[in-house]
Write a structure and sequence with these properties.
181 residues, mainly alpha, Muramoyl-pentapeptide Carboxypeptidase, domain 1, two-stranded antiparallel ribbon, 6 helices, 6% strand, elongated
Length: 181
């Protein structure tokens, strides 16, 4: 090794090669330039199957949610169906089983009610209004603003004075509407 050359001078050999190379020799043996950024490697393209998998998974999830919604899993209704009435008459040694489904109309309250009232008759009113499509919110037995608003909507629908009070005329109209439903 040449004593005049510094041991830590890594680039001295490269500079010497550049000086010795004739003008056309650079094309045959390019010198790597550490200071010039190289081009980034090309990005790999996603295969078509890679795109189909998430799309199919999303469609499957949407299909499952649609089936669950159609089955009523997400409904918050608290109405329970009326169970069928089953009777088994016995005649001699022969047994006959008969199943009859009866839809019983909800009753109308049997007393007059006004905002501020509480109790089971208010619950009867709230259930009756709810079954006719006039939601009172939660059936809680309290004749509050939501129940009053539902009573007014019902009264307007049957062309009564919409005062929000369940008097004799409103009770009769409510009972008639429940019988028709």
């Amino acid at each position: 090794m040449d004593r005049g050359q510094d041991r830590d001078d890594w680039f001295s050999g490269i500079e010497a090669e550049e000086r010795e190379a004739p003008g056309g020799a650079e094309a045959d043996h390019p010198v790597e330039d550490w200071l010039r950024p190289s081009e980034p490697p090309p990005r790999p393209r996603l295969a078509a199957i890679d795109r189909r998998v998430p799309i199919l998974a999303a469609l499957a999830i949407v299909l499952v949610l649609a089936v669950l919604a159609a089955a009523g899993v997400f409904s918050s209704g608290s109405r329970t169906p009326i169970p069928p009435v089953t009777s088994t008459p016995t005649v001699g040694t022969q047994t006959t089983q008969t199943t009859t489904t009866q839809t019983q109309a909800l009753p109308a309250p049997n007393i007059s009610l006004a905002p501020g009232d509480q109790g089971p008759q208010v619950e009867v009113l709230q259930r009756a209004l709810g079954s006719l499509g006039f939601s009172t919110g939660k059936v809680d037995g309290n004749y509050g603003p939501k129940t009053k608003a539902a009573v007014k909507r019902f009264q307007r629908s049957v062309r009564l004075t919409a005062d929000g009070i369940v008097g004799p005329k409103t009770r009769a109209a409510l009972a008639a509407a429940l019988r028709r439903s």
